[in-house]
Amino acid sequence: MMEELNRSLFLWINATPHSPEWALEMATFIAKDLIAIVPMLIVALWLWGPRDRVGSQRALVLKTGIALLYAMAISWCAGELFPHARPFAVGLGHQFLSHAADDSYPSDHGTAIFTFALAFIFWHRLWSGVLLLLVGVAIAWSRIYLGVHWPMDMLGGFLVGMLGCLFSHMAWQFYGETLSERASQAYRFVFALPIRKGWVRH
Question: Where are the transmembrane segments (predicted)?
């Protein structure tokens, strides 16, 4: 029954040869490029920000990074345990985005953006996390629309993201302070010149 629902939702969302060109172009941009917001935000939060908040921002970056590592590891394990062919690999729907015919569950893109969004909801500000969650929904829609993922792949990415944040929060209690100190030391050594010039925060 779950597989039938998965297929029905996919066919409802998936584009067809009659879909407007502008919608396909927009979906392609969202599917391929919007995920770049993750590394851009991570770099910006670490390097810049109000002096009294930069410490908490860097803690957020580290906790989110740990959550992403856990989430991607869980995603890989889930893909190995529950392999699932992509829609185009089983001849269902229409494909408008080039992609290898590897296993689709859970979505790596979905896992990354939903982990990031949930981390911001839990450890930053609700509004920022909700905005990122909307970005995640847009990415999920685009990759289903273009025929390279199932809806359940994206739900799987969301659930894996929750697990990644949970494991990161638990791990942080044990080595968060030590990791923060060592990361800060490494940062001050590597970015010594930009810090002296005032281009980035100390």
Answer: 29-48, 60-85, 130-148, 154-175
Decide if 92 contacts 148 (C-beta within 8 A). Answer: no
pLDDT of residue 51: 84
Q: How many CA atoms lie within 13 A of 201 on its CB side?
A: 17
Question: H/E element holding 130?
Answer: helix 126-145
pTM of structure:
0.92
Write b or e for each residue in 2-19: b if 16 or more Cβ atoms lie within 10 A of its Cβ, otherwise e: eeeebbeebeebbbeeee
At 172-187, the pLDDT tens digits run: 999 988 999 999 999 9
Q: How confident is the model at residue 201 (pLDDT cuts 50, 70, 90)?
A: confident
Q: Tokens representing 194?
A: 């930009």
Q: What angle do CA 83, 87, 93 make, to 5 degrees?
A: 165
